[in-house]
Design a protein that fits this description.
single chain; about 675 residues; alpha+beta; seven-stranded mixed beta sheet; six-stranded antiparallel beta sheet; 21 strands; about 20% strand
């Protein structure tokens, strides 16, 4: 049994199905397997049936480019009482939906041939809503063809910004339509049933999935971090291949040119300009294009949506993950705060890693050594940076939190039967007892939320960052199926911080909020379909977390201190041009409702290309980003820490004076 806290997983094998193939007769038993383990859903309900149908339609045509509103209504009508039919091994409604989809894809190919004739020209004034979630299904054939024509313009513009000539671009795009239709026509029934099973799983909650044989292989490779590729976790959303997380030490993270939520829209091998479009391509096929031998190159066209939508080409050299590149690092900031020179230690922890089974390093031991080093340098305060930490190993999260408290409970998990498992720090040493802030963002997820939440509940650290962390507070179990049918990944529990709060949906709220480019709807658990609701347990904060009689005790934070920090930070942020720019870009991005013009995308892409050529990103020692300590969030975290040092010193002075007065009296 393996527990991993990026997704917080338990991996084991179970004989849910003895079948050799994924057929109609295996669907209902496998669905029952999900329900037997799921945290909240225990039986088939009309609500779950409707959710499953909605997810199936979404997975069938994620970009809303093929099915019309009437088609969707017909599929929903045909799927009435679907669960009852499936219990009798009747899957006609699923098969018929696939046939209708196949017909519409064929019609789309014919229309593309008609559009991409000798007289076709790129119209840069074309506008398009790139995100399917922000538009409805077409009501008529005319409306659908208008959307498809705009989409063809968008796809051609992608080729042209990759230095391809128009005739070659038209040829490549028509070939892509042929490949898409061929894939749909030749898809096997088990592929279709895998799509439905995954739709059923995601109707339970966003983190439950059906993993087909190919997807399971990719999943296991990612868990081992042994993939010779770009070092990124990918997902499929609305027809796009989306970068979920960057693995520290991987090629994507090292490049500095790829960010979470970037969309990969085409892939080329080596130095080739023959980019293959991957929009609407199955994720496993995209992964196969990106994966490759160590030392080989892959080129990606990346679409990024912020204040404006832009595209840029990233060239990466495939490599294996090197744990030393993933390791925690210590930096120092020296500055004058409140007329006092201060030395601030910054520990950058990109993930909660561990390779202790092989006698290698673990993040808790690395952080402990860095704290000892920081203490030797007599730092005035410490920043623990979890702002891009997406999770990691459960035990490491508990141990890292324990470095800053004496001992006590750190996290509890609760399963569907109400059973609670408590995980505590048993080391009675406080390795650092001085002023502490934890820098977070909406990229901080899972294990990061456990550490931030625990330190907040023990009044040990000031949490600084976006309004809240990501909000993934659930536990998944992966159950392998016999006969190479794949596996089911199902949410089996939820975890809670010592205050009794689940981090689900809203994550850990920041004590001091600062503007962040990641403060948008897509960087949040509650933006996902059918996210589980937040829960709570009775508080389980351990009184022995801080022994005030010990010389190494910490000063507990008070509402008064937090209020003062908030007020001073708000004043600084309101005058800061960099934070003002971040807020402006967020507001402008939200106000456009997803409508973009091709000319704007191409202009932005050209500007990005020129800037990339003229300004090569320079890395510091050990691959560090030389701009890391001067980023707006880090600078403000240092200012807040300086304020905290001053406030705690005043508090200590008052306490010492009171103690002296009591002695004299």
């Amino acid at each position: 049994m393996i527990k991993v806290f990026g997704s917080l997983l338990v991996l084991f094998t179970v004989s849910i199905s003895q079948a050799n193939d994924l057929g109609c007769d295996t669907l209902y038993p496998l669905m029952n397997g999900f329900l037997a383990q799921h945290l909240t859903f225990k039986k088939f309900t009309p609500e779950l049936e409707q959710r499953s149908i909605n997810q199936f339609i979404k997975n069938l045509d994620p970009s809303k480019l093929y099915l019309m509103e009437g088609d969707v209504s017909k599929i929903k009508t045909d799927m009435t009482e679907l669960f009852s039919k499936m219990s009798s091994k009747k899957c006609d409604a699923i098969d018929n939906a696939q046939k209708l989809y196949e017909k519409r894809v064929g019609e789309s190919q014919e229309y593309a041939k008609k559009i991409l004739n000798d007289s076709f020209k790129l119209d840069e004034n074309t506008t398009i809503v790139i995100d399917p979630a922000k538009r409805n299904y077409a009501k008529t054939v005319t409306e659908l063809q208008d959307l498809q024509a705009r989409y063809i313009q968008f796809q051609i513009s992608n080729y042209l910004t990759s230095d391809m000539k128009l005739d070659e671009a038209k040829k490549q795009l028509l070939h892509r339509y042929e490949v898409t239709l061929k894939h749909v026509v030749e898809s096997k029934s088990d592929d279709l049933y895998a799509i439905f099973l995954d739709s059923f799983a995601t109707a339970l909650d966003p983190h439950s999935n059906f993993l087909s044989k190919d997807v399971l292989e990719d999943f296991e490779i990612t868990m081992r971090l042994s993939l010779e590729g770009i070092g990124a976790t990918l997902s499929s959303q609305d027809g796009y291949t989306v970068v979920e997380n960057l693995i520290p030490g991987g090629a994507a993270a090292k490049s500095g040119e790829i960010e979470p939520k970037d969309k990969i829209i085409s892939v080329a091998q080596g130095n080739s300009n023959k980019f293959e479009p991957v929009i609407d391509m199955p994720l496993r096929d995209v992964v196969k294009l990106i994966r490759g031998k160590k030392g080989t190159k892959v080129r990606l066209t990346v679409l990024r949506q912020g204040k404006t939508v832009s595209k840029h080409v990233v060239e990466l050299t495939r490599d294996k993950i090197d744990l030393k590149d993933e390791a925690a690092k210590l930096s120092y900031i020296e500055k004058t705060i409140n007329n006092k020179k201060m030395k601030i230690g910054v520990i950058d922890l990109p993930s909660f890693y561990s390779d202790s089974d092989n006698g290698e390093r673990s993040c808790s031991e690395d952080v402990k050594k860095l704290i000892i080093e920081a203490n030797a340098h007599k730092v005035d305060g410490l920043i623990l940076d979890l702002s891009k930490n997406g999770g990691g190993v459960l035990g490491e999260a508990v141990r890292v939190a324990g470095l800053f408290i004496k001992k006590g409970n750190v996290v509890e998990t609760q399963d569907s039967d109400g059973r609670v498992e408590n995980l505590a720090d048993l080391d009675s040493s406080i390795y650092y007892s001085g002023p502490l802030v934890v820098l977070t963002s909406r990229l901080s997820a899972s294990a990061s939320e456990i550490v931030a939440g625990a330190l907040q509940d023990y009044k040990r650290a000031v949490i600084i960052g976006s309004d809240h962390t990501f909000g993934k507070g659930s536990v998944q179990a992966v159950m392998k199926l016999r006969n190479d049918l794949g596996a089911i990944k199902v949410t089996t529990g939820m975890f809670f911080t010592p205050g009794g709060d689940s981090t689900q949906e809203k994550g850990v709220a920041s004590d001091v909020k600062i503007p962040s480019p990641y403060t948008s709807k897509e960087f949040s658990e509650d933006a996902l379909d059918y996210a589980l609701p937040k829960k709570s347990l009775p508080a389980f904060v351990s009184p022995e977390g801080n022994d005030l009689t010990s010389a190494s005790h910490y000063i507990p934070l008070t509402p008064s201190i937090i209020s003062d920090l908030q007020k001073d930070s708000k004043t600084r942020v309101s005058k800061d041009k960099e934070f003002a720019k971040i807020e402006t870009e967020l507001k402008e991005s939200e106000s456009k409702n997803g409508i973009v013009k091709l000319a704007d995308i191409m202009k932005k892409s050209l500007e990005a290309s020129k800037e990339k050529k003229s300004k090569k990103k320079v890395k510091g020692k050990d691959g560090e980003d030389p701009d890391y300590l001067t980023q707006p969030a880090m600078k403000e975290a240092a200012n807040i820490l300086g304020d905290l040092v001053t406030l705690e010193q005043k508090q200590m002075t008052i306490a010492n004076k009171t103690e002296d007065d009591n002695k004299h009296n």
